[in-house]
Amino acid sequence: MRGRAAVALATATAVGAGIMVSIGSANAADPGPADVGAAGAAEVRQDCQESLYGAFPITAKATLRLPARWPVGEPTPATGIAVTASIPGSVTAALRATGATSVGGWVDFSVSYLGRSVPLTVPVDRALPAGADSFEVMASVPFPPTSTQYVNTAYYELSDTTIRLTGREPGGGEVPPLATACRNHPDQVAGLATVQFFTPEPLPPSFVDCGFPNGTQPLSLSLTPTVDPRVVAGGPPTTLSLFGEATLAEQTQRALLDSGVRVAKGSVRLPVTYSFAGAPVSTNTYDLPVEFTVHELGQPLRELVWTTVDPVFSDAPGEGTWRRGPVSVDLALFDAAGNRVGALAGACADRPDQDTGLGSTTFVAATDGVIQTCGESPYPQPQDFPPSLEAHRAVVTARATFPTRFPLGQNTPAAPATVRMDLDTAVGDWLRGIGAATVSSTSDLVAPRSFTGEVKRRDSYRTTIGPVPVPATGGLVLDGAFALDFSPVGHVGTMTWDAQSVFYDLVPYRADGSVAAPGRLVFQCHPLPGNRTEFGRVEIVDAVRPPYDIAASDITSSSVRLSWTRPEGIVGFEVYNGTTPVASTTDTSAVVSGLTPATEHTFAIRSKNAAGDLSADNGITFRTLPADAAPTALRFTATGTAKLKPGTLPLSAAVSGTLIPASGELSVDLTANATTANLRYLGIIPVTASVRLTPQGPATGTLTTGEATVATNASLTIPELQVFGIPLRQPTTCASAPSRLELTGPFTPTTASLSGAYTVAPVAGCGALSSWMTQSLSGPGRIELELR
């Protein structure tokens, strides 16, 4: 960090015969969780690749304890990690099938953080369970110190696993080994711990004098307390953490060597009082464990110490402070053989005018956004980074428009999202001070995605903002937009998004367009504890069955009729032209108009259940007819039959008409030739009737997807009757009343097959024979024609 030296946990020099306590406070630019040493656990499902024993799944678990905050450049304390791998029964069965009764080897885990990987090896030596039972490989192994040289947030995650096992026969023989690499299932983040690395800023050292039974002994204790400088009131508790080094002075070291002491083990006891709004709330004493290995003179005796105080909270805004009380020391002394040979214990008194403050936090009122504290990021910065911006505050408000419920296994549509960064007055004052008229910014919002409370991914969303005018007073507001989406989810549950850390830059411009010095600055922001960071939530529900048997009919240049089959349990349907909703219906069909002629259209139908959940879409693609297609003239010769009451009569006709391709409108003129019907008067006298099917006008209708439907009214006229071959005189009006004739069938401009029912109505206009003609001819029938 430029302009400031990183504060190492250095040993303070003993002054006189006292204990020097050097106390520092956390960098206010880097607040975050301070529950030092909180244990984190993760469980992750992994797929193991093909081996001699086949592919198989495992469950890997780990528990790791690390401080939540730690100084940049300093290694985290050495700790342990408990790891477990559950091996399925299929592996047990495969090993037993080779004659193995026990197994040995290794399971190699890895923990990743900040792009690095920490390998961990767990030895295996155990008997195989009976039959096809699963078994576990577990151990607690050392976890080495980790560190970084930059202010950053490190996520420690359980990563991939390698298994190397060899089955052993009862006589000691070995079977073919099992060697395989296992990878985490997609969309799993196995978080173990989160450590915020920060740069501490020390307060002036204070001094205490300790009196031991054998006289005053000097001891130095260099502590660095860390605490979140701002916390949201009403949120979770916050804590003060302490870490540093305890150092025995040289004269104490000499006295211990002369007495044969090789180990001094015990604690430094530190009473801490917490006050809120100036009133004491609680006092607790904390032991800082120490264990000195006494060696020859020339090298100080130092021991790392760290602990955390009890958490505190407040529902109301205000300031909380911590102060230490008088320090005491209690050490047990051991010789080289491990025998206890004495003790070094006593109370310590503060020197006059010592500042015993350990730190403070300000509880701030909650807002709709996420309150964050921003400071210099680890990325390259100008040499003259402005100190006034090292602890500025930003209220980050992210919002996204999500469906409240979404079907299992589907992708959500991209959700429009916005982010607003309300930067405090320190930013505005600095920009005005350097003569900036406008500012541009690029913001990266880290938004972890969780499923049923487990973090699945840590996505980063970038938005480019500006130029934004610099206001005459106050802070600065930056507004940006981005889109959220996510891959299919395989389980019913709740998916959430949280607004976490923000990286953003500022590029200040003068009124003439030139960049104002010092140029581009990059900031990293961390949420204050107690923020409600969630800004998106979707309930993943059981999938709804989509409609099926989608069909398009009655296609014209501008409209279509869509139909489908309803799945069980469906109450409605949504119709989309592409992605645009065009109809909502409870029926199983819909007519859509306003389409573009001569264009390919893709429509989608989605089912909807009683809860309002939508299915995946099922669709169809078709092409509308041209809008300007000229009418097509039609000419046919028709032959066929008229199946009437007297029997099946041959039928022939001349057919003409027009077809409008754009609309499918069809008009047909049918001029039928006369045909002969053989009748019997009074059941014995043969009568020959000449009959003709006579339409009352053109048969009109539509042609849709190759199928024609036309209709008109038609009469059966009887122009002539003969008895024993002798024509009878009769009125020319002899005919049946008009009745409906509807013909349907395959149709093209060159050939067609049309048929339909036709009922001959009562006959009139035949004089005395009208009643007999009705009795002989009237009744249901059928017309069948082939057009060529």
Spell out the blueprint of helices and strands:
Layout (H helix, E strand, L loop, with lengths): L18 E7 L13 E10 L7 E10 L3 E3 L7 E9 L1 H9 L4 E12 L2 E12 L7 E9 L8 E7 L2 E8 L9 E7 L6 E8 L2 E2 L3 E7 L2 E2 L2 E9 L2 E3 L7 E9 L1 H9 L4 E14 L2 E15 L7 E8 L9 E7 L3 E7 L5 E11 L6 E8 L5 E7 L15 E9 L4 E3 L7 E9 L1 H9 L4 E14 L2 E16 L6 E9 L8 E6 L3 E8 L11 E7 L6 E8 L6 E6 L6 E6 L6 E6 L2 E6 L3 E4 L7 E9 L9 E6 L8 E13 L2 E14 L4 E8 L2 E7 L3 E11 L3 E6 L2 E17 L2 E3 L6 E2 L2 E8 L5 E9 L2 E2 L5 H8 L1 E9 L1
Q: Can you walk me through this structure?
A:
Helix content is 4%, strand content 57%. With 788 residues, the chain is mainly beta. Strands 1, 13, 14, 15, 16, 17, 18, 19, 20, 21, 22, 23, 24 and 25 form a 14-stranded mixed β-sheet that branches. Strands 2, 3, 4, 5, 6, 7, 8, 9, 10, 11 and 12 form an eleven-stranded mixed β-sheet that branches. Strands 26, 27, 28, 29, 30, 31, 32, 33, 34, 35 and 36 form an eleven-stranded mixed β-sheet that branches. Residues 1-38 have low confidence and may be disordered.
